[in-house]
Amino acid sequence: MGGAQGGEEGVGRLGAERLMTLCERSHDDVARIIERAHQAGALRPDFTGEDLLFIFGTNALPARASKDAAPGVWRCGVGFMLDGLRAEAAHPLPSGPLTSRSCTR
Question: Using CA atoms, how far apart are residues 48 and 96, in angstroms rounded to an integer?
Fold first, then answer.
């Protein structure tokens, strides 16, 4: 998503339908990366690929809205999210995790 224009261009201009298509194509790779992180104890155990999709989606609008006023500020948001995903930072969540089925309804 980085590219020459920066990540905010990729995230902010990527339409929801295109993002979903890209996520579907990379699902198996993402699942393997998440599984390795779970096995290494580096990623909170309740995090799923669907959660990653949700994070991308929630970051898209702020990235787009701030691209002129504060280019690259989206990286701070991603940094906060990544820190919160570390296994040692995990606390019980207020609801159950996203599932593939709940994302396609």
Answer: 11
Q: Virtual CA dihedral for 2, 88, 42, 47, nearest 10 degrees?
A: -70
Contact 5, 14 (CB under 8 A): no
Question: What is the spatial distance between Cα 99 and Cα 105, in angstroms, rounded to a whole number?
Answer: 10
Pair 75, 22: CB distance under 8 Å: no
Q: Among candidates 71, 47, 77, which has minimal Cα distance to 59?
A: 77
Q: What is the pTM of this model?
A: 0.62
Residues 18-65 have pLDDT tens digits of 767 877 788 889 899 999 999 999 999 999 888 887 887 788 788 888
CB 18 within 8 A of CB 40: no
